[in-house]
Design goal:
Blueprint: H1 4-18, E1 23-28, E2 49-55, E3 58-63, E4 66-71, E5 76-81, E6 97-103, E7 108-113, E8 121-125, H2 132-135, H3 148-158, H4 163-168, H5 178-188, H6 201-222, H7 227-236, E9 255-259, E10 264-268, H8 269-272, H9 281-287
Antiparallel strand pairs: 1-6, 2-3, 3-4, 4-8, 5-7, 6-7, 9-10
Helix pairs in contact: 1-6, 1-7, 5-6
Length: 288
């Protein structure tokens, strides 16, 4: 799933490609992806793209004051094409193509989603805050006002909730998903199950530093990369996420996993839990 660093890099890349170009038409191949009806999709036709921005994990294409907002969900992506086919795509639930944005010079974007679980969402709105998911976002962790004190207030308000879940909840902190929450907690040397309100001052400073540094470093590495290069860049720089069974780059211990119904987390016991493996109830049941 694209998270804050990848969506930020997509926004920067697409701003350079789309700015001052006119949108000729938008073809929708997966009708379930379009979540709004007013303004209509055709309201974007003939508009000039002013900029492309980000709200958490939402991508926002601002075209003459009308916004095409995308949430790429788990398996969505944006692919640039220098030359679009002249024949419009046929609506299909079997194709990976969800929508196609055609520009005045014949280039454009293919918005795709792999797999059978269709969660990608498109919104055409006058104001990004008209998108419920954007209106309910927590603070952006890379803004100047996201201080250690602000993080402390968030953690106190979350009480005994586990840090992993607090970091991932978009209404609490915007833009962090499964991968970067693993990476942040590894960099902070903290258990994903540690209660949010249990951090002392030193731990709070360490978590705030790890959070800001992990995300900013990923943004910096991604800056200037084309959309086609972003997934590989992300994967190649992860320390623990998606690396179950491999060596921790910090200490050499094996990276372990805890599985859930539809996701998993990765961590290093030596770095994060004092050498104690975390209980994995799903795996325990399989071994019985």
């Amino acid at each position: 799933m694209p998270e804050l660093p990848e969506v930020e890099a997509l926004a920067q890349d697409l701003t350079g490609r789309l700015r001052d170009r006119a949108i000729t038409t938008i073809h929708v191949a997966q009708f379930s992806a379009l979540k709004t009806f007013d303004p209509p999709l055709r309201a974007l036709e003939g508009t000039l793209v002013d900029t492309v921005g980000r709200h958490g994990k939402f991508l926002d294409i601002d075209a003459s004051g009308t916004h095409l907002v995308l949430h790429l969900a788990r398996a969505g992506w944006v692919r640039w094409r220098d030359e679009m086919p002249t024949i419009p795509p046929k609506p299909s639930t079997k194709s990976t193509l969800a929508a196609r944005v055609v520009l005045d010079d014949g280039s454009g974007l293919d918005i795709t989603e792999a797999g059978t679980r269709k969660s990608l969402a498109m919104y055409v709105v006058r104001d990004p805050l008209d998108v419920p998911g954007i209106a309910s976002l927590g603070p952006d962790p890379l803004t100047d006002d996201f201080t250690a004190e602000r993080l402390a207030g968030i953690l106190r308000a979350e009480g005994r909730k586990q840090l992993k879940g607090v970091l991932r909840h978009q209404g609490t902190i915007a833009g962090i998903g499964n991968a970067y929450s693993d990476e942040i907690l590894h960099a902070a040397r903290m258990s994903p199950f540690k209660p949010a309100d249990s951090l002392d001052d030193e731990e709070l400073t360490r978590l705030h530093t790890a959070l800001r540094t992990t995300l900013q470093d990923a943004v910096d590495r991604s800056r200037g990369l084309a959309a086609s290069e972003l997934k590989g860049e992300k994967k190649s720089n992860l320390a623990v996420h998606g690396r179950t069974g491999q060596a921790c780059p910090a200490c050499g211990d094996v990276v372990r996993e805890v599985s859930f119904a539809d996701s998993s987390l990765q961590y290093c016991a030596t770095c994060q839990t004092g050498g104690k493996p975390l209980a994995d109830r799903r795996m325990s049941k399989l071994l019985k």
